[in-house]
Amino acid sequence: MNVRSRFVTLLSLTVLLTASCAVDPVEDSNYSYDRVMQAWINTHYPGLKTYGDTGAYVLEMERGDGPAVTDSAYVWAHYTKRNLDQAITSTNIRQLAEQLGQYQVNADYGSDIWRVDQGYLPTALEKVIKSMRGGGHTTVALPYSVSSHGTSVYSAFSGTLEDDNCIIDLTVDTVITDIYDYQERTMRAWFEEHYAVRDTAAEGLYFKMLSGQAETDTISEGASVKVRYIGRRLDGQVFDTNIEDTAKFYRIWKNGGSYNALSVSFYKDDPEKLAENSVVDGFAKAVSLMNYGETAVTLFNSTLGYGEKGSAPAIPEYAPLIFWLYIEPKN
Question: In the chain, how many domains are there?
Answer without folding.
Answer: 2
